[in-house]
Amino acid sequence: MSPLEFRAFTKQLLFIDIETVAGKADFTELPERLQKEWIRKAGRLKNDEERTEAELYPERAAIYAEFGKIIVIGLGFFHWDENDELTFRVRTFHGHEEAEVLQQFCDLIEKRYSPKLTLCAHNGREFDYPYLCRRLMVQGLKIPKPLWNPNWKRYDNPHLDTMELWKFGDYKNFTSLELLAALFEIPSSKENLSGDQVNATYYQQNDLTAIAEYCREDVVVLAQLYLRFNRFPLLPEEQIFRLA
User: Fold this and answer.
1) For labelling alongside 134, which of 37, 67, 69, 76 has CA 20 to 30 A away?
2) DSSP, residue by residue, the chain
3) Using one digit for the tens of pLDDT, what is the confidence trace for 142-154?
4) Contact 98, 65 (CB under 8 A)
5) Which whole-number Å values give the CA distances from 44 to 48, 58, 103, 118, 165, in the listed order?
6) Distance between CA 96 and CA 69 in Å, rounded?
7) What is the pLDDT of residues 174-220, one digit of tens each?
8) Rounded to an integer, what distance in angstroms lies between the CA atom of residue 190 and that of residue 82?
9) Domain ranges of the chain
């Protein structure tokens, strides 16, 4: 992609990452019907006979849209200033009320971006995009046109996925964002927090701010990886702006 093509394309390109947690702090807080469904789900996940389905809930529920919720959505975009210098700007919508977080996200993409919006996430086709749509439906919110068309099949999805780009058609392996960041010498986003610590950080430490900061850094890594995939140099720290 040439610099001119890159600039034109990225005007409608939005990098995203979501952070999810279990829908409730503890299995016992779930409604009885959902408890029964989690026991069915967890029964297929167990690889340790000594652990109960209830014990698996705080560790595994967050990755399933039926049992988890979104608490942070990270958003980033490239920007050119009046001197034609490229910068990257990143922010988050975060909060305890999932419906409010989702509505803020929908309002932004509907008001700022056209239906030709392209999203970019890591493992987005498998996780972020469908998770967002499912939780929008659960919360009774309309799925924005730029986000999803229910008639698309996975291979028709127009949104970008850096993990899919790295696979080059290979369906066998999951490659983490952190592994690719290490491979391409991109500074890590995992210095203070990692994905497997998010649920405990939220429910036990009550530190939503730390999770939002972690999500912002993941979006920065994602954008830097996209630059490397397109053979552009990494942006220096002074050209990255973290917005409130």
Assistant:
1) 76
2) --HHHHHHHHTTEEEEEEEEEESSSSGGGS-HHHHHHHHHHHHHH---TTS-HHHHHHHHGGGSTTTEEEEEEEEEEEEE-TT--EEEEEEEEE-S-HHHHHHHHHHHHHHHS-TT-EEEETTIIIIIHHHHHHHHHHTTPPPPTTT--TT--GGG--SEEHHHHHHTT--S----HHHHHHHTTPPPS-SS--GGGHHHHHHTS--HHHHHHHHHHHHHHHHHHHHHHTTPPPPPGGGEEE--
3) 998 888 766 666 5
4) no
5) 11, 16, 34, 35, 30
6) 10
7) 899 999 999 999 998 777 788 889 999 999 999 999 999 999 999 99
8) 34
9) 3-23+67-242
Asked if 203 contacts 21 with a C-beta cutoff of 8 angstroms, the reply is: yes
Residue type, 76: G
Residues of the chain whose pLDDT is less than 70? 1, 46-49, 149-156, 244
Residue 99 has, within 13 A of its CA and on its CB side, a CA count of: 6
Torsional sign, CA 181, 4, 92, 130: negative
- For 3-23+67-242, CATH number out of 3.30.497.10, 3.30.420.10, 1.10.150.120, 3.40.50.300 equals 3.30.420.10
Token pair of 162 as six digits: 């850096």
Answer whether 46's CB lies under 8 Å from 54's CB. no
